[in-house]
Each structure stands twice: as structure tokens, then as C-alpha cells.
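Protocol step 6 of 9: fold each sequence in the batch and record its C-alpha cells directly after the sequence line. For illustration, a two-sequence batch is reproduced in full.

Sequence one:
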Amino acid sequence: MAAWKDSVSRFAQNAVSKSKEMAEVTRLNMEIGGLEQRIKENHAALGRYLLERPELLPVGDPKVDEILGQIKEVEAQIERDRIAIRELKNIELCPQCGAEVVRGNRFCPQCGSPMAAAQQPSQAEPAAAHTCPECGQLLDEGAIFCGNCGASVKSSQ
């Protein structure tokens, strides 16, 4: 009977030891993962730093040229996707402040700047509770200026 108790005791001690070992291995693996993430973040920061200072990049290095070309391709795709989103949302960007403006507004509802290629708004738009006190145009939610005539509308809402 004593041999059986010793055997169970050794098994339990071995299990506890293995559990502690696995917990420590897991902790160390998580620490390594965090450190590897910090390295990736530092690589990205270094890359951004160098891209902001092209005079520091090696001239004529084929690998640098390849990476810069890939970055330009990705940036171009991002811009194409942003344009497609604006088309789907029927908006354009204000040339002054960059706010999203409903296509057809003659003025930006955020800064009041005239829109470059404003189209006349559709006459089929429904009446709303928030309209411009100057021209009666339907106002965008949160508008500070009328998108049609440029009048300040902040106090009218």
C-alpha cells in the first residue's frame, strides 16, 4: 500500500511540476510575442521616419525602389477605394477643411467654404424639420453652415 501511495504522490508532484513548467512556458511565449510586436512597431516607425526623409534612403537600391513602388501601389489603391466610397455615399470632400459634403451642396456645412463644382440640389428632396432660415435648403445633421447658400445656421437648430 505504501508503494501505491508513493507512486500516486510522485505522479501528483510530476503533474504539478509539469503544470508549473507549462505555465512558465506560456508566460514566456506571451512575453516573446509582445517583444516581437514591439520590434514590428519599431520597424514600422523606422520605415515611416525614412519615408519622411527620402534623402536618407539609398539611391538606386533595387530593394528600396521595389518597396517604394509597392507602397505607391497600395496608396493608389487606397485612394481609389476612398473615391469609390465617396461615390457610393454621394459625397465629396470640402477643398478647404476636408469635411464630407453631400454632392450638390454649393457650400460646406462645416466651414462655409464654397464647393468647387457644386451642382444644383434636386427639387425632389423631402422637407425636413431643419432647414436653412435664409434659403429653405434641407440641412445636413449637425451643419453649422447651409450647404446651399453658406448662411450660418448654428443658432437656428
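Sequence two, same batch, same settings:
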Amino acid sequence: MRYGILGTTQAHTDDGIPMPLGGTRLRALLAALALHPGRLRPADALIDEVWDGAPPADAVGALQALVGRLRRAVGREAVTSAAGGYRLSADPDDVDLHRFERLAGEGEGALADGDPAKAAALLDDALALWRGPALADLPGRAVPVRRLEARHLAARRARLAAAVALGQAAGTLPALAELCDTHPLDEPLQALRLRALRAAGRPAEALAAYAEVARTLTETLGTTPGPELRTLHGELLNPPAPPPGPRPAAPGTAPHAADPATPPVGGA
């Protein structure tokens, strides 16, 4: 079985056939179990997560009945019970969230190792697993969702960095502008946008973007840009000189015969 919790809760056979999951409590229980595949979840913890701190009078009985319904939906062997709790019999890679974290980590590692093409492929596979808000069917999910959203943003940032490294800076600018507007205090993201603007041949816009970031940091946090942004700003103000080219020939002097830009005598 494969399970999806990066969006509404889903269950599929290994062949991709969806299993019907009726009822919000049933989907919440599966999401709570799939967050920790292969690990025993105490009944008290499941009750708290499924009913969001407001359990019914007979909470243990209600949970047992819900587990029975889940077993009928996904197979009895999929949910085992032991020592006062329940376990989803699945490997981490059977759950989209954990598969995303593995692929994203491998992609970020490839980017750090200087292989942006491999990083792009891995990160594309990871990001394709997101179907909507994570843990959409699990009430009271604020704490894990904040972590997952930060992880999702980091993967998106790494994918855009891979595109810049592959010479596709201009194509990243619309997505970077949108993300930077949504996360104005994310300095690594803002720095990536500056690098993309510079690589796309738009240094004036990069300087304007830096000024906006600096103003936002000062007004919101009372701080100045960090070392990475300051270094980029200095490079934008003082770009390195281009490497020296060949000296132009003196007026009236024929190009040297060894000049590769000059076709040989009799050449096409």
C-alpha cells in the first residue's frame, strides 16, 4: 500500500488503485498513523490527534471502532495493534511525506556537491508529491505543518538554485519574485533572487531588490542584511573586470596568420 498525506489523506494499492476512505475521522486516523509509519502510536496520542483534544465520552471504544473501519478500508494487515496502541505497517518510502523528505535531501546534497542536473531531477520528483496543504485532514496540525511548509520552501528554493546553476536564471525570476514577496524575511531566498537577476543580466534590478530587502529587514526586525546579502551587494556595486581579450590589430596591419578568427587563405 501507498499512502498520501501531502494534501488530503489517500491510500492506494501498489498498482495505484485508490482505496475509498470515507469520513473525516477515518482520514484523520490514517494521517496520524502515516506520520510515523512502522512505529507504535499510543492510543492516547491517537485520540488526542484525531479528536483534537475534545474526545468523545468513550474515547477508547471510539478509537477501536475507527481502527476497525480503517482496517476494512485498507486491509486488516495494514494496521496492527500492540502494547496499548496501533501501528501502520508501512515503510517510510510508502508515505509521500517521507518519500518527499528523502528525495529533497538527496537533491539538496547533489546541489551542494556541484551536480545541479541531478539535483533538479531529484527535486522535481520530490515537489511533484505535493498535492495541497500537508496533513489537510488532521485537526490541530499546526506544529508539524509549519515544519513541513518550511521544508517545502527549502526544496523549492534548492530547485530554483539548481536552475540558476544550469544557466536558466531568467526563467526562475517570476517564481523567485512571487516567493520573495511571500517570504520577505527569508535571506537565503532573497540572495538567490539577487544572484538570478545578476546572472540574467539585470544588475540594476538586483540592486533595487537589495535596497528593498534591506529596508524590510530594518523596518520589521531592526536588523541589517546578513553576510551573504552584503557580499552580493558589494559584488553588484563592484563587478569583476572582464578578462582581457585579444589586442586589436594596428591600423593598416593584416591579422596574424595564427589568429583563429581569421580563415586561412583559400578557406571558405
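Proceed to step 7 once all outputs are recorded. Observation for sequence two: Residues 142-165 form the longest helix (24 residues).
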